[in-house]
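Field: sequence (string)
Field: structure_tokens (string)

Example rows 1 and 2, in order.
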Amino acid sequence: MKTTISWYDEHAKELAVQYEALLPESVHGWAADLLPQGNALALDVGAGTGRDAAWLTSRGYEVVAVEPSAGMREEAQRLHADDPVQWINDSLPDFKNVFRLGLTFDFILLSAVWMHISEVDRPRAFRKLITLLKPGGLIAMSLRQGPVDVDREMHPVSEQEIERLAKEHGAFIQRRQETPDQGGRAEVSWIQLAVRLPDDGTGALPLLRHIILNDDKSSTYKLALLRALCRIADGAPGYAKSEEHGFISIPLGLVGLYWLRLFKPLLVAELPQQPANRGLDRLGFVRKDFRRLLVPGTDVSHLDMRVGMTFSGDRAKALHYALRDACKTIEEMPAHYMTYPGGVPILPVTRLGRLSLQSAITLDETYLLSFGRMRIPGHLWRALQRFDVWIEPALIAEWQRLIKSYCMHQGRSVEDTVINNAMIWSEPGRDVKVAREQASRLMVGPGVRCVWTGRLLSDSNLDIDHCLPWASWPCGDLWNLLPAHRSVNQQQKRDRLPSAEILQSARERIEEWWEKAYYKAPSLILPEQFRFEAKASLPIVSGDKFELGDVFAGLTMQRLRLKYDQQVPEWHK
């Protein structure tokens, strides 16, 4: 960076002529409609001769301009002496002087800057920028395409890198545009990116980002708890109950179950969850019963740790006490230390008394509630449901970063692929075998009709369709597996949501299929599995009274969530 700064010092006067000849309205017009309206605080990084900083003040913004080259700053203050710009001598990735200001910004501009930051420094630089951005704020940055200038110490850049960094920090690319070089260089072009930090207006996302990116962490426990809640909000919202004062209550045993499911592959891979090399013994929930889950004969796969599964004998005993220890650790550690500024817990826990162990356990609502409850502020719960697509990648990236730092602290070397594989949340495979078997059984008797068209099906044209598409929401629950004509499923519906009209017109056929194939099937297992899965993964389905109309209502609400929160495309006939 010193070489770069020296070059700009030496060429400041001639560069000033070039830069000031370009109109900022033209250079940044691609993002004009995305910029803040009215009063705003802007940060111009690598502000050069002050052209853009002065333009931002003309829009009514208060502007802090950062420029490490003394020569460029002198030219800027000479050319734009009348513009109320606050100049700072600083540079990425350190940004020490900027952080001392204690400010956060509505808009951050990086015009022709990113290529001067080395690849190894970019994750840290991006993290600094995101930390300085207000919720809902925007970063506009330009990526230089074409041959690098060795004299100015440039590095190759890619938009894929920015997309990855944005995702890891809970942000997203709002706009991408390619533009020619304003200076007329044929060999140079620019990719313009607008990076938005989402905000739901409730304060939930800033709170989550603070815990993920800034909060002190002596272990990975806080990240594990938040990721467990993300997975529950996405895959088991039916277990959430509304309480007074805007809280949502979920079974503490469900949190413990997801906690164990997240940690088990990490601990099997011997990946540290604390800075010191203390081994598994110092993790509060890793006691003899958790270890028994790793022993052949009593081992329980993390894929088996899901709602509706039944265990007996030694496996039931090991899982029961492992859940007890996990719930105790959650209450005493992350839930206790995740607080508001006044010390009030964000996620208060109520645990019940001594738990009695039965010879067999079923991971249903009653059993999971026997461990107690966790209360989640309503706005936080809704953010986890609506913005999981941004929140969970940020959690994963920070968890991976901590593991790497712990390994370095312990003098260990670990491949990224080992960490990545252990962090994957694995769902049961895309298995439609049970649904297909039930369709074959019914074909012998009353027949099976395509839920979308009403046509009678045969083995030659039967497809089992994921009503809510697997590509967008990987759910293999029985209620989501419907018989469809192969041509309709593969050529028309494909990986799209059924529209509201199509779903409503198919309601009678869907409920008839659910009743005959699952809920009143001549099986001891399928009716209970259908009920367990529907109550866990669909909203609304709750209470002792269970009717197929409730399941359809839950399906309808989940369709709306995928449509509006994840922008899954619809299928219209």
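Row 2 begins here:
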Amino acid sequence: MSFKTIERSAFYLLLAANLLPLWSVHYFLTGDGPCHLHNAHVLLDFWRGGELKDFFNPWMYVNTNFMPNWFGHAFMELCMGIGFAPYLAEKLLQTFYVLSFGLGLRYLVRQLNPNSLFISTFGLLLTYHHVFQMGFYNYSCSVAIMFWVTGFWLQHRNAWTTGRMMALAMGFLTLYFCHPIGLLFSFLVIISVFFTEFVGGFLAKDRPVAPWKSFWQNGFAVAIAALPVLVLFAQYLFIKGLDPSPRGESDQQIWKDLREFTALVNVMNTERPWAIGVAIIFALLLVAAIIFKVKIRQIRWTDILLPVTAVAILIYFKQPGGIAGAGILPIRLQFLPYLMLLLWLASVNYPRWLQTGTLVFTAIIFVGFWSIRLPSHQRAAAAAAEYASCASVIPDKVSVLPISFDHNGQDANGREVANRVWLFMHAGDYIGAERSVVMLGNYEAATQNFPLIWRWERNPIDRLKKNDKMFEDQPPIADFLNYPKNSNNGSVDYVVTWCMDRKFADHPNTADIKQQLSEGYELVFTSQTGLAKVFKRKGL
């Protein structure tokens, strides 16, 4: 077989292998994923109206501002609306992301340099990153769709029609309703290439007029396509403001994280050597690309992507801790310099031996990653299923407070499920995906960044605090006996505990929660291995 055939086969084989983790388990558990799924279920109940809408109205309302972070919720709401089970709706969104990332990257690389498609195969190692594992579906989808939108502009930038301009506008709008980061970096690449080609064409002596014509045609097309999303983005900033917060990590720490590419360490810290291996391949490809560029002594329009990479690195180091309602910026932004560098690397023509070697090491690292991740995901899926089994004794139209005493999770034998990410912080919200209930651990509704917003008088994130601590802390604490008088007659009908008798069994906070449970609740369900327990309010 030709190398082209081998490379294409390797790409689609690894792309298919990237789907295996999702479909080999019932729940592919991520940090915030269960909460997103629950909110999508509530949105569907609001949409259907009737008694369920009347039940939810005293608790929360739909955010009517045109904000980002709607895409994933709308996707899962639509899937459930046409008959898919909730867990399948989440799995379809995860599948959409994985396929969009891989195929979108290959599409974009093809527009940059069809001779370096092997870079897209290497890039499949970046599909599963820490931000996705945290359950930031909208952010992850924005990165994947950014490939498609940018590639579409590159393909059609000199041949605009009304239909293509409308398609570009829809791409920008989709990016906005995913997450602003994909939209902003798509703009960065498009504007950089746009002006690079204009300057290059203007300086060429044999084309004194065409660059101006191309400049106005392309500029007009992009401006018209971007106008709706620019209006929406201005509205978003007006509502949210920049409101930057200080960064907790030092420059030395974020440099170490960038150097070791810790954004690829997802579930267990034992993944670190493989993440460093990916960073080393990046470094070797960068050195090789520079050498080849020096040898041929030729500058192409794609070389602007190297300064774009430098801009991404600068943004990473100059970032605040949070801005415009978005937090945890270091781990979000660490991923982007590598993506921008990946695009520049794709613009270089490499010898066959280097392409072959990259594919071989890509396959080795792929196997290394999943030899660690898959067992953890299988344990997490089993534990999540046990947690979700609590829904069997919880009816519709009640309020449920999930309290996790171990965000890392445990299996029946007491083994830690994850030590890199808090997989079980919101895993209890799978109960709210199976039932039409109010999940009082719904952090999203307290941020005003998502489709649903708590009514202030019942906001459990504030009203359940005790000694300025909350039920998401470790160890958790909550004042749920006094919630009715603190929340304008709200109620905590059910309390679901996770690992209460394990990690913090002897802590005073655990004793306080047990005392409240004994006073006002009765045990009605214990899961198969005792990790999860359901308590019903007395007299309910």
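free_text_note (row 2): The mean pLDDT is 93.
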